[in-house]
C-alpha cells in the first residue's frame, strides 16, 4: 500500500521580545494622528463661525467653503469706464451726416443716447449746434407744387447706344446718359433742390373718429431750398439692352459683347454694403461702379448729404416680364435657366437669381430706396380694360412683389393714367382693383412743372421725363431745373426723334 503523503507543517519562527510591542505602538500613533486631524477641523469650524459673527452675533451664519488660490491671479484687461475716443468720433461723424439732411432731431437723439454722453463736451456742443440749426428750418409752404422728375436706364457708352441700329432712336428719345444725369444733379443741387420721399410729401392719417385720410406732410427745410421727387422706370436691364437675344421668348438673356452700352445688373458692393452696377465695357472687361442712376445718385448723396431730406432716395419701378435688377427671375424661366446653367450657358441657376434679387431688394430698402410697381408686362393701363389691369397687377404681385417685398407705389407704364384729371373714386373699376392690391401712391407722366392731387385715400402725381426728347424739343420746360445747353450730351445723334415706341 502506497504511502499517503501529508503536507509538511511550517515551522513557526519565534519572535524576539521587543516585537511583541509593535502593534501597540502603531495603534497609539494612529490615534494621535486622528486627534490632531479632528482638532484642526474643529478649529477651522469655530474660526469660521467666529469670523462670521464678529458683527453682532447674527444666528444666520454661513461657513465659507472657498479655498485660497494656490497661484497668483493673472492680470485682467482694464475695464472701460468712460467714453472711447474712437466711438465718440464715429458717432459724431454719423450724426453730422444725418444732421446735414436736416434731420436734426434724429442726430440729437443719437448723441444723447450714448451712455457716456454727459462726459463728452464735444457731443453737448453738437447738440447745441443741431438745436440751433433745427430752429431755423421752415415748413415748405406749398407742398402741392413739388415737382417730380424721372429717368430710364442711363447710357454708359454712347458709341454703342448710338450705333445706328434699330434701337438707336428709342435710346435717343427716352434715355439719359450718365454724364447728363451727373450734370443735372449738380445743377439742381446748386439751385437748392432737395430730394424727398413721397412719404414725406403726403401720407395717411387716422382721425379721432377712426376714419383715415391723406394729408400733406410738414417738410421742414432751410429757406430757399426746394423739395422734389425722383423716380426711375424699368430697373430691369432688358435683353435688348444688354444682349442679342429676346427675353420674351422664354429664353433668359444675359450680358454679352453685343450689349448697347448699359449696365447689366445691380449688385451689392462687399466692402461698403451699398448697391453698385455691373457693367461690361466694349473690350469685355467686367467692371463694378457708378454705371446707372442708383449708384450715381448714391455717390452724389454721400458727397452732398444736404441733397437728401432725412435720407431720402429715389423711387424705383420694375416690370416682371423678364425679371428685376438684371436678374432673370420670371417663373417661366426656371426650367430653361437651370438647363442653361447646367450646360455652362448661364452664370447662375434660377434659385441663385431669385435669392440675389431678394438680397439686392433688401439692400436698396435698407438704404432708403422705394421699390414700386411698373406693371408686369408694361401695358398702357389707361387703354386697357379694368379686367386686364387687374390681371396684370395680380401677375406683378405674384412674380415681382414676392421678390422685392410689398409696396404701395405704382409708376404707370407709358405714364398712362387710369382716369382724367378728376379725382379717383371706387366707381372707377381700375382704381378699385389697384387700391385692393394695396396701392396708395399713383404716378403718371405729365409735361407740366408740377401736378399733384391729394385724394381722401390716395396721393396722385405727374412726372417730368428728363430725357433726350424733352431736352431737345422742350428745353424751356426744364429751365427751372437746369440749363439744357450745359448738360446736353454732344454725342447724341441729331435731330432727336419726336415719335417712336414707348419705354
Q: Could you please describe the fold and organization of this structure?
A:
This protein has 503 residues and is α/β, with parallel strands linked by helices. Helices cover 35% and strands 14% of the residues. The protein has 16 helices and 19 strands. The protein has helices at 22-52, 85-100, 104-112, 121-135, 158-161, 168-174, 178-190, 198-201, 239-242, 293-303, 334-342, 350-366, 386-404, 429-436, 468-473, 484-487; strands at residues 138-139, 147-151, 154-155, 176-177, 193-195, 202-206, 212-216, 220-221, 226-232, 265-268, 275-280, 286-289, 315-318, 370-373, 409-411, 441-443, 452-454, 459-461, 464-465. The strands form six sheets. Strands 2, 5, 9, 13, 14 and 19 form a six-stranded parallel sheet that branches. β17 (452-454) and β18 (459-461) form a beta hairpin. α2 runs antiparallel to α3 (104-112) and α3 (104-112) runs antiparallel to α4. 36% of the residues are buried. Mean pLDDT is 88; it is low at 1-22 and 48-70.
Q: Which secondary structure elements does this structure contain, and how are they paired or packed?
A:
Elements: H1 22-52, H2 85-100, H3 104-112, H4 121-135, E1 138-139, E2 147-151, E3 154-155, H5 158-161, H6 168-174, E4 176-177, H7 178-190, E5 193-195, H8 198-201, E6 202-206, E7 212-216, E8 220-221, E9 226-232, H9 239-242, E10 265-268, E11 275-280, E12 286-289, H10 293-303, E13 315-318, H11 334-342, H12 350-366, E14 370-373, H13 386-404, E15 409-411, H14 429-436, E16 441-443, E17 452-454, E18 459-461, E19 464-465, H15 468-473, H16 484-487
Parallel strand pairs: 2-9, 2-19, 3-4, 5-9, 9-13, 13-14, 15-16, 16-18
Antiparallel strand pairs: 1-8, 6-7, 10-11, 11-12, 17-18
Helix pairs in contact: 2-3, 3-4, 7-10, 13-14
